[in-house]
Design goal:
Layout: H1 17-25, H2 31-44, H3 47-55, H4 62-75, H5 81-89
Length: about 100
């Protein structure tokens, strides 16, 4: 990966943002597959990938939302800022 990080799953070989987004947001899919989609989207480094990842900030698991926020931080893409800001301003988020 371009971030020299040790990721808990390899990036998916799928390159379709729509397909990766579907996997990312599928709360019935295996967590490992969702992580693979998350890292593949991060590695694409496109606006479309950033927007797909940002949609994951609405997923049910706080830990999963944290991981998505982390990869959005790695990307440092300006299109993620409104979504990260909204997440930070959410009073229902704890710590």
């Amino acid at each position: 990966n371009p971030y020299c990080s040790v990721d808990p799953a390899p990036a998916s070989e799928v390159t379709s943002v729509a397909e990766l987004k579907n996997t990312l947001l599928d709360e019935n899919a295996a967590l490992f597959e969702r992580y693979k989609a998350m890292f593949a989207l991060r590695n694409l480094r496109t606006k479309e990938a950033v927007l797909a990842l940002s949609a994951g900030l609405k997923c049910g698991s706080a830990l999963y939302r944290h991981e998505i926020a982390f990869v959005l931080g790695q990307l440092q893409h300006e299109d993620s800022v409104p979504y990260l800001k909204e997440s930070l301003e959410d009073c229902a988020e704890n710590e």
